[in-house]
Amino acid sequence: MAEQLAWWQKTIAYEAYPKSFQDTKGAGTGTIAGITSRLDHLASLGVGALWLTPMYKSPQKDNGYDVQDYYQIDPSYGTMGDFDELLAQADARGIKIVMDLVFNHTSDENPWFVESSSSRDNAKADWYVWADPKPDGSVPTNWRSCFGGSAWEWCEARQQYYLHTFGTYQPDLNWECPEVRQAIYDVANWWVAKGVGGFRIDAITFIKKPAVFADAEPDAGDGMVDVRSVTGNVPGILDFLHEFKRQVRDGHDIFTVGEANMVAAEELPQWVGRDGVFDMVFGFEHTKVPLGGTEVWYHKVDWKKSTLVRELVKTEDAVAGLGWCPVFFENHDQPRSVDHFLPEAVPAGRTDDAAKALGMLLLTMRGTPFIYQGEELGVCNLHLPSIDLYNDPQSKSTYAEALAAGLSEQEALEAVWGYSRDNARTPMHWDDTANAGFTTGTPWLAVNEQYKTHNVAAESADPDSVLAWYRRLVALRGELPVLVDGDFTELVPGDEQVFGYARKDAETEALVFVNLSPEPATYDTALVAGAELAASSQGADAQPGALRPYEAVVYRR
Ligand code: NOJ
After folding, report:
1. What is the pLDDT along the chain (557 residues), one digit of tens a residue?
2. What is the CA(236)–ligand 1 centre distance, in A?
3. Of 82, 259, 401, 551, which is the active-site residue?
4. What DSSP character marks residue 554?
5. If you ran DSSP here, which 8-state letter would residue 128 be given?
6. What is the whole-number distance in angstroms between the Cα of residue 94 and the centre of ligand 1?
7. Which of 17, 20, 65, 207 has most ligand 1 atoms within 8 Å of its beta carbon, as the pocket-test mutant?
8. Tally: H helices and E strands in the chain
9. N or C: which end of the chain has fewer CB within 10 A?
10. CA distance 176 to 174
Protein backbone atom coordinates (compact mmCIF):
# COMPACT_ATOMS: atom_id res chain seq x y z
CA MET A 1 0.00 0.00 0.00
CA ALA A 2 1.28 3.39 -0.99
CA GLU A 3 0.86 4.84 2.49
CA GLN A 4 3.27 2.25 3.90
CA LEU A 5 6.01 3.39 1.58
CA ALA A 6 8.64 5.91 2.63
CA TRP A 7 8.56 9.35 0.98
CA TRP A 8 11.52 8.51 -1.22
CA GLN A 9 9.67 5.47 -2.54
CA LYS A 10 6.58 7.42 -3.49
CA THR A 11 8.40 10.19 -5.28
CA ILE A 12 10.38 10.67 -8.47
CA ALA A 13 14.07 11.49 -8.28
CA TYR A 14 15.94 13.63 -10.78
CA GLU A 15 19.67 13.92 -11.27
CA ALA A 16 21.10 17.25 -12.35
CA TYR A 17 24.72 17.74 -13.37
CA PRO A 18 25.20 21.20 -11.89
CA LYS A 19 28.00 22.21 -14.21
CA SER A 20 25.63 21.79 -17.17
CA PHE A 21 22.23 22.67 -15.76
CA GLN A 22 21.87 26.46 -15.83
CA ASP A 23 24.45 29.24 -15.84
CA THR A 24 23.47 32.56 -14.24
CA LYS A 25 26.83 34.31 -14.42
CA GLY A 26 27.73 34.02 -18.08
CA ALA A 27 30.84 32.03 -17.18
CA GLY A 28 29.79 29.03 -19.28
CA THR A 29 29.32 26.75 -16.27
CA GLY A 30 26.19 26.13 -14.24
CA THR A 31 25.49 27.67 -10.86
CA ILE A 32 23.42 26.87 -7.79
CA ALA A 33 21.28 29.94 -8.45
CA GLY A 34 20.68 28.44 -11.89
CA ILE A 35 19.37 25.23 -10.36
CA THR A 36 17.09 27.25 -8.08
CA SER A 37 15.75 29.16 -11.08
CA ARG A 38 14.75 25.91 -12.78
CA LEU A 39 13.00 24.14 -9.91
CA ASP A 40 9.60 24.63 -11.52
CA HIS A 41 10.62 22.39 -14.39
CA LEU A 42 11.36 19.66 -11.87
CA ALA A 43 8.11 20.29 -10.02
CA SER A 44 6.27 19.83 -13.34
CA LEU A 45 7.70 16.31 -13.44
CA GLY A 46 6.58 15.44 -9.93
CA VAL A 47 10.15 15.38 -8.68
CA GLY A 48 10.52 15.08 -4.91
CA ALA A 49 14.26 14.38 -4.68
CA LEU A 50 16.98 16.19 -6.59
CA TRP A 51 20.39 14.50 -6.69
CA LEU A 52 23.16 16.97 -7.42
CA THR A 53 26.60 15.69 -8.35
CA PRO A 54 29.36 17.17 -6.14
CA MET A 55 29.48 20.94 -5.76
CA TYR A 56 32.06 21.00 -2.95
CA LYS A 57 35.23 23.01 -3.30
CA SER A 58 37.31 21.16 -5.85
CA PRO A 59 40.06 21.61 -8.43
CA GLN A 60 37.41 20.16 -10.82
CA LYS A 61 39.73 17.71 -12.51
CA ASP A 62 36.90 15.16 -12.42
CA ASN A 63 34.14 17.77 -12.27
CA GLY A 64 33.85 17.73 -8.49
CA TYR A 65 34.51 14.06 -7.78
CA ASP A 66 37.88 15.32 -6.55
CA VAL A 67 36.88 17.03 -3.30
CA GLN A 68 39.21 19.55 -1.72
CA ASP A 69 36.90 20.64 1.10
CA TYR A 70 33.68 18.83 1.99
CA TYR A 71 32.41 21.80 3.99
CA GLN A 72 32.59 24.42 1.28
CA ILE A 73 30.78 25.12 -1.97
CA ASP A 74 33.05 25.51 -4.98
CA PRO A 75 33.09 29.21 -5.91
CA SER A 76 32.25 28.39 -9.54
CA TYR A 77 28.83 27.27 -8.29
CA GLY A 78 28.24 30.20 -5.94
CA THR A 79 28.14 30.40 -2.17
CA MET A 80 26.81 28.50 0.82
CA GLY A 81 24.14 31.23 0.93
CA ASP A 82 23.08 30.19 -2.58
CA PHE A 83 22.91 26.60 -1.40
CA ASP A 84 20.73 27.55 1.58
CA GLU A 85 18.43 29.44 -0.77
CA LEU A 86 18.24 26.37 -3.03
CA LEU A 87 17.30 24.21 -0.04
CA ALA A 88 14.56 26.66 0.96
CA GLN A 89 13.15 27.09 -2.55
CA ALA A 90 13.25 23.36 -3.17
CA ASP A 91 11.54 22.74 0.15
CA ALA A 92 8.77 25.16 -0.83
CA ARG A 93 8.10 22.90 -3.82
CA GLY A 94 8.30 19.65 -1.87
CA ILE A 95 11.70 18.79 -3.32
CA LYS A 96 14.51 17.45 -1.12
CA ILE A 97 18.13 17.95 -2.08
CA VAL A 98 20.27 14.82 -2.31
CA MET A 99 23.99 15.36 -1.97
CA ASP A 100 26.69 13.21 -3.52
CA LEU A 101 29.13 11.83 -0.96
CA VAL A 102 32.57 11.07 -2.38
CA PHE A 103 34.33 9.02 0.27
CA ASN A 104 36.40 6.48 -1.63
CA HIS A 105 38.88 9.23 -2.40
CA THR A 106 39.56 12.96 -2.10
CA SER A 107 41.41 15.43 -4.27
CA ASP A 108 45.19 15.42 -3.92
CA GLU A 109 44.71 19.09 -2.97
CA ASN A 110 42.57 18.17 0.04
CA PRO A 111 44.44 19.28 3.21
CA TRP A 112 44.02 15.71 4.54
CA PHE A 113 46.12 14.41 1.67
CA VAL A 114 48.54 17.31 1.71
CA GLU A 115 49.34 16.39 5.33
CA SER A 116 49.31 12.64 4.81
CA SER A 117 51.71 12.88 1.88
CA SER A 118 54.13 15.20 3.66
CA SER A 119 55.91 12.49 5.67
CA ARG A 120 55.49 8.99 7.06
CA ASP A 121 54.93 10.14 10.61
CA ASN A 122 52.42 12.98 10.52
CA ALA A 123 49.07 12.88 12.30
CA LYS A 124 47.29 11.78 9.10
CA ALA A 125 50.01 9.42 7.89
CA ASP A 126 47.53 6.51 7.69
CA TRP A 127 44.62 8.39 6.14
CA TYR A 128 45.35 7.18 2.60
CA VAL A 129 46.44 3.88 1.07
CA TRP A 130 50.23 3.90 1.02
CA ALA A 131 52.53 1.09 -0.11
CA ASP A 132 56.22 0.54 -0.56
CA PRO A 133 57.68 -0.10 -4.00
CA LYS A 134 58.60 -3.60 -5.07
CA PRO A 135 62.25 -4.44 -4.31
CA ASP A 136 63.18 -3.26 -7.83
CA GLY A 137 61.55 0.11 -7.12
CA SER A 138 58.56 -0.46 -9.38
CA VAL A 139 54.89 0.00 -8.51
CA PRO A 140 53.55 -2.24 -5.70
CA THR A 141 51.11 -4.13 -7.98
CA ASN A 142 49.95 -4.33 -11.59
CA TRP A 143 46.60 -2.68 -10.92
CA ARG A 144 45.30 -0.29 -13.60
CA SER A 145 43.28 2.78 -12.58
CA CYS A 146 39.85 3.46 -14.04
CA PHE A 147 41.19 6.45 -15.90
CA GLY A 148 44.14 4.54 -17.41
CA GLY A 149 47.74 3.82 -16.36
CA SER A 150 48.92 2.40 -13.04
CA ALA A 151 46.65 2.80 -10.02
CA TRP A 152 49.77 3.76 -8.00
CA GLU A 153 51.42 7.17 -7.98
CA TRP A 154 54.83 7.94 -6.49
CA CYS A 155 55.22 10.34 -3.56
CA GLU A 156 58.71 11.75 -3.25
CA ALA A 157 58.37 12.96 0.35
CA ARG A 158 57.33 9.54 1.65
CA GLN A 159 59.29 7.44 -0.84
CA GLN A 160 56.09 5.44 -1.22
CA TYR A 161 53.23 4.99 -3.65
CA TYR A 162 49.60 5.91 -3.01
CA LEU A 163 46.64 4.10 -4.50
CA HIS A 164 44.16 5.90 -6.75
CA THR A 165 41.24 3.91 -8.15
CA PHE A 166 40.39 6.83 -10.42
CA GLY A 167 42.66 9.73 -11.51
CA THR A 168 46.16 10.27 -10.10
CA TYR A 169 44.67 13.38 -8.47
CA GLN A 170 42.09 11.23 -6.57
CA PRO A 171 44.01 9.38 -3.82
CA ASP A 172 41.99 6.64 -2.10
CA LEU A 173 41.12 7.13 1.55
CA ASN A 174 42.07 4.41 4.02
CA TRP A 175 38.81 3.29 5.62
CA GLU A 176 40.76 0.96 7.94
CA CYS A 177 41.80 4.07 9.86
CA PRO A 178 39.12 4.90 12.49
CA GLU A 179 39.85 8.64 12.33
CA VAL A 180 39.11 8.62 8.60
CA ARG A 181 35.78 6.96 9.16
CA GLN A 182 34.89 9.44 11.89
CA ALA A 183 35.86 12.37 9.67
CA ILE A 184 33.62 10.99 6.94
CA TYR A 185 30.62 10.52 9.23
CA ASP A 186 31.13 14.05 10.54
CA VAL A 187 30.94 15.41 6.99
CA ALA A 188 27.75 13.50 6.21
CA ASN A 189 26.10 14.52 9.49
CA TRP A 190 27.00 18.14 8.90
CA TRP A 191 25.00 18.02 5.65
CA VAL A 192 22.14 16.15 7.34
CA ALA A 193 21.99 18.95 9.90
CA LYS A 194 21.78 21.43 7.04
CA GLY A 195 18.58 19.76 5.93
CA VAL A 196 19.45 17.64 2.93
CA GLY A 197 17.06 14.78 2.18
CA GLY A 198 19.53 12.08 1.33
CA PHE A 199 22.78 10.97 -0.15
CA ARG A 200 24.00 9.29 -3.27
CA ILE A 201 27.24 7.64 -2.22
CA ASP A 202 29.97 7.49 -4.81
CA ALA A 203 32.13 4.49 -5.70
CA ILE A 204 31.28 2.96 -2.34
CA THR A 205 31.99 -0.64 -3.32
CA PHE A 206 35.71 0.11 -3.65
CA ILE A 207 36.41 1.41 -0.14
CA LYS A 208 37.67 -1.86 1.34
CA LYS A 209 41.04 -2.91 -0.04
CA PRO A 210 42.40 -6.47 0.07
CA ALA A 211 44.51 -7.32 3.13
CA VAL A 212 47.53 -8.07 0.94
CA PHE A 213 48.48 -6.06 -2.12
CA ALA A 214 49.56 -8.48 -4.85
CA ASP A 215 49.73 -8.67 -8.63
CA ALA A 216 46.67 -10.18 -10.26
CA GLU A 217 46.15 -11.98 -13.57
CA PRO A 218 46.39 -9.33 -16.33
CA ASP A 219 43.16 -8.63 -18.21
CA ALA A 220 44.77 -6.96 -21.24
CA GLY A 221 47.95 -6.77 -23.26
CA ASP A 222 49.41 -4.07 -20.98
CA GLY A 223 50.09 -6.67 -18.26
CA MET A 224 47.73 -4.86 -15.89
CA VAL A 225 44.36 -5.59 -14.35
CA ASP A 226 41.47 -3.23 -13.69
CA VAL A 227 41.92 -2.18 -10.05
CA ARG A 228 38.19 -2.51 -9.49
CA SER A 229 38.33 -6.26 -10.05
CA VAL A 230 40.69 -6.47 -7.06
CA THR A 231 39.21 -3.84 -4.77
CA GLY A 232 35.52 -4.19 -5.65
CA ASN A 233 33.19 -5.52 -2.98
CA VAL A 234 35.98 -7.01 -0.83
CA PRO A 235 34.75 -9.15 2.13
CA GLY A 236 34.51 -7.03 5.26
CA ILE A 237 33.15 -3.99 3.41
CA LEU A 238 29.72 -4.45 4.96
CA ASP A 239 31.13 -3.89 8.45
CA PHE A 240 32.21 -0.40 7.40
CA LEU A 241 28.88 0.27 5.77
CA HIS A 242 26.83 -0.90 8.75
CA GLU A 243 28.83 1.53 10.83
CA PHE A 244 28.09 4.26 8.27
CA LYS A 245 24.39 3.40 8.51
CA ARG A 246 24.41 3.59 12.30
CA GLN A 247 26.35 6.83 12.35
CA VAL A 248 24.63 8.67 9.49
CA ARG A 249 21.39 7.10 8.32
CA ASP A 250 19.73 5.86 11.48
CA GLY A 251 17.41 8.29 13.19
CA HIS A 252 17.11 10.67 10.25
CA ASP A 253 14.35 11.04 7.67
CA ILE A 254 16.73 10.75 4.77
CA PHE A 255 17.52 8.07 2.22
CA THR A 256 20.80 6.65 1.02
CA VAL A 257 21.54 5.24 -2.40
CA GLY A 258 24.93 3.68 -2.94
CA GLU A 259 26.72 3.46 -6.26
CA ALA A 260 27.21 -0.27 -6.14
CA ASN A 261 29.27 -1.59 -8.98
CA MET A 262 30.09 -5.29 -8.59
CA VAL A 263 27.28 -6.23 -6.23
CA ALA A 264 25.51 -9.30 -7.63
CA ALA A 265 21.73 -9.56 -7.51
CA GLU A 266 22.01 -12.43 -4.99
CA GLU A 267 23.89 -10.13 -2.62
CA LEU A 268 21.29 -7.34 -2.69
CA PRO A 269 19.58 -8.45 0.55
CA GLN A 270 22.75 -7.44 2.38
CA TRP A 271 22.90 -4.10 0.58
CA VAL A 272 19.35 -2.73 0.50
CA GLY A 273 16.21 -2.71 2.60
CA ARG A 274 15.73 -3.14 6.33
CA ASP A 275 18.78 -5.33 6.92
CA GLY A 276 20.87 -3.84 4.15
CA VAL A 277 23.42 -1.08 4.49
CA PHE A 278 21.62 1.40 2.22
CA ASP A 279 18.02 2.19 1.35
CA MET A 280 18.77 1.56 -2.33
CA VAL A 281 21.75 0.88 -4.56
CA PHE A 282 22.42 1.65 -8.17
CA GLY A 283 23.46 -1.58 -9.87
CA PHE A 284 25.01 -1.56 -13.32
CA GLU A 285 24.43 -5.01 -14.76
CA HIS A 286 21.83 -3.75 -17.24
CA THR A 287 24.05 -0.87 -18.40
CA LYS A 288 26.82 -3.35 -19.28
CA VAL A 289 24.65 -5.60 -21.46
CA PRO A 290 25.41 -3.74 -24.73
CA LEU A 291 29.13 -4.20 -23.96
CA GLY A 292 28.82 -7.91 -23.35
CA GLY A 293 28.92 -7.48 -19.58
CA THR A 294 32.11 -5.40 -19.60
CA GLU A 295 32.80 -1.70 -19.31
CA VAL A 296 35.16 -1.61 -22.28
CA TRP A 297 33.69 0.95 -24.65
CA TYR A 298 35.33 -0.44 -27.77
CA HIS A 299 33.98 -3.96 -27.32
CA LYS A 300 31.53 -4.54 -30.14
CA VAL A 301 29.13 -7.30 -29.22
CA ASP A 302 25.86 -8.66 -30.51
CA TRP A 303 23.43 -8.52 -27.67
CA LYS A 304 19.80 -9.35 -27.24
CA LYS A 305 16.97 -7.26 -25.85
CA SER A 306 15.97 -10.29 -23.79
CA THR A 307 19.34 -10.10 -22.00
CA LEU A 308 18.68 -6.49 -21.05
CA VAL A 309 15.21 -7.42 -19.82
CA ARG A 310 16.62 -10.37 -17.87
CA GLU A 311 19.02 -8.08 -16.00
CA LEU A 312 16.25 -5.61 -15.17
CA VAL A 313 13.98 -8.37 -13.94
CA LYS A 314 16.77 -10.00 -11.94
CA THR A 315 17.12 -6.85 -9.88
CA GLU A 316 13.35 -6.51 -9.46
CA ASP A 317 13.09 -10.09 -8.24
CA ALA A 318 16.10 -9.86 -5.94
CA VAL A 319 14.64 -6.95 -3.98
CA ALA A 320 10.97 -8.00 -3.96
CA GLY A 321 9.86 -8.13 -0.34
CA LEU A 322 13.01 -6.37 0.90
CA GLY A 323 12.63 -2.88 -0.41
CA TRP A 324 13.68 -1.72 -3.81
CA CYS A 325 16.31 -0.20 -6.04
CA PRO A 326 16.24 2.86 -8.25
CA VAL A 327 15.02 2.43 -11.82
CA PHE A 328 17.45 4.24 -14.09
CA PHE A 329 18.76 4.20 -17.62
CA GLU A 330 20.98 7.27 -17.61
CA ASN A 331 23.27 9.21 -15.35
CA HIS A 332 26.27 11.49 -15.81
CA ASP A 333 28.56 8.49 -16.50
CA GLN A 334 26.36 6.73 -19.02
CA PRO A 335 25.59 7.34 -22.69
CA ARG A 336 22.15 8.62 -23.62
CA SER A 337 19.72 5.76 -23.15
CA VAL A 338 18.23 5.64 -26.64
CA ASP A 339 21.67 5.19 -28.24
CA HIS A 340 22.67 2.78 -25.48
CA PHE A 341 19.68 0.47 -25.29
CA LEU A 342 17.65 1.02 -28.48
CA PRO A 343 20.37 1.93 -31.00
CA GLU A 344 18.39 0.84 -34.07
CA ALA A 345 16.08 3.78 -33.45
CA VAL A 346 18.82 6.30 -34.25
CA PRO A 347 19.41 5.62 -37.97
CA ALA A 348 15.67 4.96 -38.34
CA GLY A 349 14.85 8.45 -37.04
CA ARG A 350 12.62 6.95 -34.33
CA THR A 351 14.49 8.29 -31.32
CA ASP A 352 11.47 10.01 -29.77
CA ASP A 353 9.45 6.81 -29.92
CA ALA A 354 12.36 4.94 -28.38
CA ALA A 355 12.74 7.56 -25.63
CA LYS A 356 9.04 7.22 -24.83
CA ALA A 357 9.37 3.43 -24.63
CA LEU A 358 12.22 3.73 -22.14
CA GLY A 359 10.29 6.44 -20.28
CA MET A 360 7.49 3.95 -19.74
CA LEU A 361 9.89 1.48 -18.13
CA LEU A 362 11.51 4.23 -16.08
CA LEU A 363 8.24 5.43 -14.62
CA THR A 364 6.32 2.16 -14.25
CA MET A 365 8.78 -0.51 -13.15
CA ARG A 366 9.02 -1.19 -9.41
CA GLY A 367 11.48 1.21 -7.78
CA THR A 368 12.22 4.89 -7.41
CA PRO A 369 12.63 6.38 -10.90
CA PHE A 370 15.75 8.50 -11.38
CA ILE A 371 15.40 10.79 -14.39
CA TYR A 372 18.69 12.23 -15.64
CA GLN A 373 18.65 15.77 -17.03
CA GLY A 374 17.71 15.76 -20.72
CA GLU A 375 16.40 12.19 -20.63
CA GLU A 376 12.89 13.64 -20.29
CA LEU A 377 13.50 15.47 -23.58
CA GLY A 378 14.76 12.46 -25.54
CA VAL A 379 18.28 13.87 -25.93
CA CYS A 380 20.67 11.54 -27.79
CA ASN A 381 24.43 11.08 -27.91
CA LEU A 382 26.61 13.71 -29.54
CA HIS A 383 29.41 13.04 -32.01
CA LEU A 384 32.20 15.56 -31.64
CA PRO A 385 34.66 15.46 -34.57
CA SER A 386 37.84 15.20 -32.49
CA ILE A 387 38.87 13.69 -29.16
CA ASP A 388 40.34 17.10 -28.29
CA LEU A 389 36.83 18.50 -27.97
CA TYR A 390 35.96 16.07 -25.16
CA ASN A 391 36.45 17.03 -21.52
CA ASP A 392 35.94 13.70 -19.74
CA PRO A 393 39.24 12.17 -18.57
CA GLN A 394 37.89 8.67 -19.09
CA SER A 395 37.08 9.45 -22.74
CA LYS A 396 40.64 10.53 -23.34
CA SER A 397 42.18 7.50 -21.64
CA THR A 398 39.82 5.08 -23.37
CA TYR A 399 40.59 6.65 -26.74
CA ALA A 400 44.31 6.11 -26.09
CA GLU A 401 43.68 2.53 -24.91
CA ALA A 402 41.63 1.80 -28.02
CA LEU A 403 44.45 3.04 -30.25
CA ALA A 404 46.94 0.93 -28.29
CA ALA A 405 44.65 -2.07 -28.75
CA GLY A 406 44.98 -1.62 -32.51
CA LEU A 407 41.84 0.32 -33.39
CA SER A 408 42.06 3.09 -35.99
CA GLU A 409 41.56 6.73 -34.97
CA GLN A 410 38.08 6.64 -36.49
CA GLU A 411 37.18 3.45 -34.62
CA ALA A 412 38.51 4.85 -31.35
CA LEU A 413 36.48 8.02 -31.89
CA GLU A 414 33.39 5.96 -32.61
CA ALA A 415 33.85 4.16 -29.29
CA VAL A 416 33.93 7.58 -27.61
CA TRP A 417 30.82 8.64 -29.53
CA GLY A 418 29.07 5.55 -28.22
CA TYR A 419 30.12 5.65 -24.60
CA SER A 420 31.76 8.95 -23.62
CA ARG A 421 30.51 10.29 -20.33
CA ASP A 422 30.29 13.67 -22.07
CA ASN A 423 27.27 12.41 -24.04
CA ALA A 424 25.23 13.05 -20.93
CA ARG A 425 27.18 16.03 -19.63
CA THR A 426 26.43 18.54 -22.37
CA PRO A 427 24.44 21.62 -21.30
CA MET A 428 20.73 21.21 -20.58
CA HIS A 429 18.36 22.29 -23.33
CA TRP A 430 15.97 24.96 -22.06
CA ASP A 431 14.93 26.65 -25.30
CA ASP A 432 16.07 27.19 -28.89
CA THR A 433 18.04 30.39 -28.25
CA ALA A 434 21.84 30.48 -28.38
CA ASN A 435 23.45 27.73 -26.28
CA ALA A 436 20.05 26.25 -25.57
CA GLY A 437 19.36 28.95 -22.98
CA PHE A 438 22.05 27.42 -20.77
CA THR A 439 24.53 30.32 -20.81
CA THR A 440 25.12 33.72 -22.31
CA GLY A 441 28.84 32.93 -22.26
CA THR A 442 30.88 30.20 -23.90
CA PRO A 443 29.68 26.80 -22.67
CA TRP A 444 32.36 24.67 -20.99
CA LEU A 445 31.34 21.70 -23.15
CA ALA A 446 29.74 21.62 -26.60
CA VAL A 447 25.98 22.01 -26.74
CA ASN A 448 24.21 19.10 -28.46
CA GLU A 449 22.74 20.43 -31.74
CA GLN A 450 19.56 18.53 -30.99
CA TYR A 451 18.63 21.41 -28.67
CA LYS A 452 17.01 23.26 -31.55
CA THR A 453 14.07 20.86 -31.53
CA HIS A 454 14.50 19.06 -28.20
CA ASN A 455 14.24 21.66 -25.48
CA VAL A 456 11.96 22.28 -22.51
CA ALA A 457 10.15 25.24 -24.10
CA ALA A 458 9.40 23.55 -27.43
CA GLU A 459 8.48 20.22 -25.89
CA SER A 460 6.21 21.84 -23.33
CA ALA A 461 4.20 23.26 -26.22
CA ASP A 462 4.01 19.98 -28.15
CA PRO A 463 1.52 17.34 -26.92
CA ASP A 464 3.40 14.62 -28.82
CA SER A 465 6.81 15.39 -27.36
CA VAL A 466 8.87 13.13 -25.14
CA LEU A 467 8.44 15.66 -22.32
CA ALA A 468 4.65 15.62 -22.70
CA TRP A 469 4.76 11.80 -22.48
CA TYR A 470 6.87 11.98 -19.32
CA ARG A 471 4.38 14.37 -17.78
CA ARG A 472 1.54 12.03 -18.77
CA LEU A 473 3.33 9.11 -17.12
CA VAL A 474 3.95 11.13 -13.98
CA ALA A 475 0.23 11.95 -13.82
CA LEU A 476 -0.58 8.29 -14.41
CA ARG A 477 1.42 7.29 -11.33
CA GLY A 478 -1.00 9.49 -9.39
CA GLU A 479 -4.08 8.06 -11.12
CA LEU A 480 -2.90 4.46 -10.80
CA PRO A 481 -1.02 4.17 -7.49
CA VAL A 482 -0.43 0.49 -8.24
CA LEU A 483 2.31 1.74 -10.58
CA VAL A 484 4.08 2.96 -7.45
CA ASP A 485 3.26 0.36 -4.83
CA GLY A 486 2.25 -2.78 -6.73
CA ASP A 487 4.15 -6.05 -6.96
CA PHE A 488 6.10 -6.71 -10.12
CA THR A 489 5.65 -9.84 -12.26
CA GLU A 490 7.18 -10.38 -15.65
CA LEU A 491 4.60 -11.44 -18.27
CA VAL A 492 6.37 -12.57 -21.44
CA PRO A 493 9.80 -13.87 -20.38
CA GLY A 494 12.31 -14.52 -23.14
CA ASP A 495 10.46 -12.44 -25.76
CA GLU A 496 13.01 -10.74 -28.03
CA GLN A 497 10.78 -7.76 -28.77
CA VAL A 498 8.32 -7.21 -25.97
CA PHE A 499 8.95 -6.47 -22.30
CA GLY A 500 5.69 -7.10 -20.50
CA TYR A 501 4.97 -6.95 -16.78
CA ALA A 502 2.14 -6.61 -14.31
CA ARG A 503 2.04 -4.31 -11.31
CA LYS A 504 -0.54 -5.56 -8.85
CA ASP A 505 -1.97 -4.68 -5.46
CA ALA A 506 -5.09 -5.87 -3.65
CA GLU A 507 -7.46 -3.82 -5.83
CA THR A 508 -5.85 -3.08 -9.15
CA GLU A 509 -3.62 -4.46 -11.82
CA ALA A 510 -1.61 -2.41 -14.30
CA LEU A 511 -0.34 -4.30 -17.34
CA VAL A 512 2.58 -2.79 -19.20
CA PHE A 513 3.86 -3.86 -22.63
CA VAL A 514 6.76 -2.17 -24.33
CA ASN A 515 7.99 -3.00 -27.81
CA LEU A 516 11.77 -2.66 -27.67
CA SER A 517 12.16 -3.33 -31.38
CA PRO A 518 11.88 -1.35 -34.62
CA GLU A 519 9.35 -3.89 -35.96
CA PRO A 520 5.69 -4.37 -35.06
CA ALA A 521 5.22 -6.94 -32.28
CA THR A 522 2.47 -8.97 -30.69
CA TYR A 523 1.63 -10.44 -27.30
CA ASP A 524 -1.18 -12.70 -26.15
CA THR A 525 -4.43 -10.71 -26.01
CA ALA A 526 -5.58 -12.94 -23.14
CA LEU A 527 -3.07 -11.05 -20.98
CA VAL A 528 -5.19 -7.92 -21.24
CA ALA A 529 -8.63 -9.60 -21.22
CA GLY A 530 -11.12 -7.39 -19.42
CA ALA A 531 -8.60 -4.56 -19.07
CA GLU A 532 -8.91 -1.03 -20.41
CA LEU A 533 -6.19 1.02 -22.07
CA ALA A 534 -4.83 3.64 -19.69
CA ALA A 535 -2.15 5.10 -21.96
CA SER A 536 -0.20 4.45 -25.14
CA SER A 537 2.91 6.26 -26.25
CA GLN A 538 1.55 6.31 -29.80
CA GLY A 539 -2.10 7.23 -29.47
CA ALA A 540 -5.42 6.03 -28.11
CA ASP A 541 -5.97 3.68 -31.09
CA ALA A 542 -3.59 1.09 -29.60
CA GLN A 543 -4.84 -2.45 -30.26
CA PRO A 544 -4.81 -5.13 -27.54
CA GLY A 545 -2.18 -7.75 -28.37
CA ALA A 546 -0.40 -5.58 -30.95
CA LEU A 547 2.36 -3.02 -30.61
CA ARG A 548 3.73 -0.63 -33.18
CA PRO A 549 7.53 -0.23 -33.33
CA TYR A 550 8.66 1.09 -29.91
CA GLU A 551 5.08 1.46 -28.74
CA ALA A 552 4.56 1.37 -24.97
CA VAL A 553 1.13 0.75 -23.50
CA VAL A 554 -0.37 0.35 -20.07
CA TYR A 555 -3.73 -1.28 -19.37
CA ARG A 556 -5.64 -1.28 -16.10
CA ARG A 557 -7.86 -3.98 -14.72
C1 NOJ B 1 31.64 7.62 -10.05
C2 NOJ B 1 31.14 8.95 -10.51
O3 NOJ B 1 29.80 8.84 -10.90
C4 NOJ B 1 32.06 9.38 -11.64
O5 NOJ B 1 31.56 10.47 -12.35
C6 NOJ B 1 33.41 9.65 -11.03
O7 NOJ B 1 34.34 9.95 -12.06
C8 NOJ B 1 33.92 8.44 -10.25
N9 NOJ B 1 32.91 7.80 -9.45
C10 NOJ B 1 35.02 8.86 -9.34
O11 NOJ B 1 34.51 9.60 -8.26
Report:
1. 455 899 999 999 999 999 999 999 999 999 999 999 999 999 999 999 999 999 999 999 999 999 999 999 999 999 999 999 999 999 999 999 999 999 999 999 999 999 999 999 999 999 999 999 999 999 999 999 999 999 999 999 999 999 999 999 999 999 999 999 999 999 999 999 999 999 999 999 999 999 999 999 999 889 999 999 999 999 999 999 999 999 999 999 999 999 999 999 999 999 999 899 999 999 999 999 999 988 889 988 999 999 999 999 999 999 998 899 999 999 999 999 999 999 999 999 999 999 999 999 999 999 999 999 999 999 999 999 999 999 999 999 999 999 999 999 999 999 999 999 999 999 999 999 999 999 999 999 999 999 999 999 999 999 999 999 999 999 999 999 999 999 999 999 999 999 999 999 999 999 999 999 999 999 999 999 999 999 999 998 999 999 999 999 999 99
2. 23
3. 259
4. E
5. B
6. 28
7. 65
8. 19, 22
9. N
10. 5
Nearest CA to ligand 1 atom 3: 333
The alpha carbon of 197 and the centre of ligand 1 are apart by a number of angstroms equal to 21
Angle of helix 466-479 relative to helix 351-364, nearest 10 degrees? Answer: 20
- pLDDT digits 0-9 by tens, 143-186: 999 999 999 999 999 999 999 999 999 999 999 999 999 999 99
Tell me whether residue 259 is one of the annotated catalytic residues.
Answer: yes
Query: Cα of 202 to ligand 1 centre, how many Å?
Result: 7
Residues with CB under 6 A from ligand 1: 62, 65, 102, 166, 202-203, 259, 332-333
Probe ligand 1: pick from 145, 333, 334, max atoms within 8 Å of CB? 333
- Please tell me the residue having the least CA distance from ligand 1 atom 2: 202
| Residue bearing the CA closest to ligand 1, atom 5 | 333
Please tell me the residue having the least CA distance from ligand 1 atom 9: 203
Ligand 1 atom with least separation from CA of 147: 7
Ligand 1 atom nearest residue 102's Cα:
11
User: On the CB side of 299, how many CA atoms lie within 13 Å of its CA?
Assistant: 13
Spatial distance between the Cα atoms of 287 and 334, rounded to a whole number of angstroms? 8
From 37, 56, 11, select the one nearest 485 (Cα to Cα).
Answer: 11
Burial of 518 (0-12, 13-18, 19+ CB in 10 A): middle
> What is the whole-number distance in angstroms between the Cα of residue 203 and the centre of ligand 1?
7
Query: What is the chain's length?
Result: 557
Half-sphere exposure in the Cβ direction for 86 (13 Å, CA): 29
- Say which of 15, 100, 108, 202 is annotated catalytic: 202
Expressed in angstroms and rounded, the spacing between residue 473 Cα and the centre of ligand 1 is 30
CA atoms of 153 and 167, how far apart (whole Å): 10
State residue 3's pLDDT score: 54
Report the interhelical angle of 393-404 vs 409-419 (nearest 10°): 140
Which atom of ligand 1 lies nearest, measured to the CA of 62?
7
Query: Is 202 marked active-site?
Result: yes
Q: Write the CB contacts of 42 (distance below 8 Å, at least 6 apart in sequence).
A: 14, 50, 93, 95
